[in-house]
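Subgroup meeting minutes
Present: P.N., E.W., G.H.
Scribe: E.W.

1. P.N. recapped why we're keeping a running log of single-chain structure predictions: easier to compare across weeks, and new members can see raw inputs and outputs side by side.
2. G.H. added today's entry (844 aa).
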Amino acid sequence: MTDSRETQCRETADADALHDQFNDVWGNPRGWRALTIVNHTTLGLRFMVTGLGFFLFGILLAMLIRTQLALPGNAFMGPEVFNQVFTMHGTVMMFLFAVPMMEGLAVYLIPKMLGARDLVFPRLSALGYWCYLFGGLIICSSLLFGVAPNAGWFMYTPLSSAAHSPGINADFWLLGITFVEISAVSAGVELVVSILRTRAEGMALNRMPIYAWYILTMAMMIVIGFPPLILGSILLELERAAGLPFFEVTRGGDPLLWQHLFWLFGHPEVYIIFLPAAGIVSTLLPVFCGRPLVGYRAVVLGVLSTGFISFGLWVHHMFTVGIPQLAQAFFSAASMLVAIPTAIQVFSWIATLWLGKPRYNVPMLWLVGFLIIFVCGGLTGVMLALVPFDWQVHDTQFVVAHFHYVLIGGMLFPLIAGLYYWLPHFSGRMASERLGKWGFWLVFIGFNMTFLIMHWTGLLGMPRRVYTYDSGLGWDMPNLISSIGSFIMVIGIATLLLDLILHYRYGKPAGNNPWQADTLEWATSLPPNPYNFVSLAKITDRHPLWRDPELGESMARGEHALTVIDHGRRETWGVDPLTGEVREIIHLPGNSWLPFIAACFIAVLCLSLLAKSYLLALFACGASIVVLLRWSWENGAHPKAAPDARTQPHEPPLHSRTCDGPGLWGMGVTLLSNGALYLSLLFGWFYLWTVAPNWQVPDAPVFNHWLLFASALLLSLAIPWQRRVNGRLRQGNAQGLLACQVSLALIGLVQAALLLWALRSEALEPTVRAHDAVIFVMLAYSFGHALLAGTLSALQALRVRIGYVGAEAPYEPLVVAQFWYYSLGVLWVSYFAIALFPPAFGGA
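Output recorded in log:
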């Protein structure tokens, strides 16, 4: 007995010593140095706490709106203030709360669920958070100064154009939202690559937690769906600040182009918000029903189908703008088609409830409330997909009620269920059942009082976006009921916040895996350590903690893989995307000031553009690029990235010593997003040529298109050499690598010079007609890419010279090569669209 006790004490001491070693490498600093933290646990919590702050601000704005509309002829707010409050409410809830909150929860959970120690690009996550925080503060500060956006959260042109919104109100929205979108796309790239490349050993795609499938789909939709709005914001800001007429009819533009770009983003965003919430439902229901999710494969197929179909629905929001009847019929059918994969998920949830033994804890109440409200919102969505009905209720309170049922019912209810479920993970304590149930019933009753009645108000003809109304129209009582219901809902939210605050002090401690869940996030300590797991287990089942309830304890004792830490690296497995077979060790960067500094310079860029201080903006842009390039320098074989490149005899190599590191995947996904932005620009070019009523084509070419041809041809001749050199590099031969990178850097400089020459053509008049304005943006796009590609190759040449890149560390030139291939493709497509497309210059 004594020997057994001594052995147990010795094992405990060894495990504690191992955890101390891991904390030395992975630990988070305090004080001012907390700004350098890049760990996903801390960043995920920061995203969620910041999102909660913006949510409360949005709730305050909503209460101001409902107070104004509670009584007819109310003078609580004037029309200008109301327009600002209305615009900011929609902007805050859609851009600063819904998407960032879901991304923050995913940033926190995904590595833990996948059995990894962190996300694959920790500094990118940090940059994304700071961009989100600074961009949100810039947007919200406009309301305090009385210059908030006032053209609606959708910013339709021409209302948001300079002629009708001459102040800087719209500029706050355009620049601030673009700033925030950098954060969203950064997180999207991060999550896609992390899910595909950093899972536990043996976790094949068919063994991934269902939540990871939802987040993978959401992240891919962000990567593809957000660039059209980014492009639209850039084009509208260029029109407002520099006079380039993309949306002005008299000079060849078309205001409907803005609606197309906005809803190319806007309708997928509905599913970007809904899918992670549905992922929470699919994760929690099996836990509280005590059985696996019914139809796992069917649900995965439904999720992927929803993401795909959602990109074909954007005209669903434009049935009344005068589009052809054939297009109306197509998009009406597509709008109803998307209900099928959604129904697959709903039936799976109902079957899981039917076959299980539900426990109605607080999270489960929110899930049941979600099912009721979301199904109602889905039914009204099918109604709005019918063109004749949509014509009748378009721009009425009926539409407002519908999308609140879909977004609050489809997002907020599952989110609160998830927060209650994972609250022990954040704090190590359990929340109050009594306060939680009071909060649920107050929110549920108040929500339905507010928005169920609003359907009636809309059917009675009350328009959206009106700041007051006359008595005697039949709208008095419905509006009063809706306003009372909104205040009941706010009391419920206040109850939930009280429960959240009190539980940190008075909540009873949560034991290990308090809900008896099946997924790996409950195998960590509560709250988790910065490194999540001291050893990484092999996974052979979709429900690892149901298969082995002691798995968390054995991982904490260091009984599994990758437990060596004396080299000072932060490490996690890099796996095959399909099979989960381990391929390399991914070494991750540590805490750094660079993301924070880069975000600060981008914030200065945003503010200087608002102030029209273009010299300062140019400095801030240059400074942010320098910081980002400095960031890229500490990578791969750099001593700070991998102070000791040796691995254990039985372990695979470090990712920087292979030809398929995560940077290759990160560049590919980033270029996918970049390509979505470019295709949106190309769509704008062909759309304006086809539809714009005053499209003006000059009699002669507006620039020497042979310069564009020469630029594309020059790069086409260089790419085969680059491919041969990179092919040898993959085989361990770095011969000619330095000469190739130096040559590419010079080619990038020559390309940039040729494109700048074309941009400065006297015949190109981008402020006179939209035709020239689009060409100007296309040329500027390629100019920026040529300059950046050349700079990246120059840095690679320097790294080859120093010894950071070579036969032993080969993968960085392969990453840069993807950027060159993309630039080449863009050049040829632009040349075809501008120079060889005959109707562009009045040809047959």
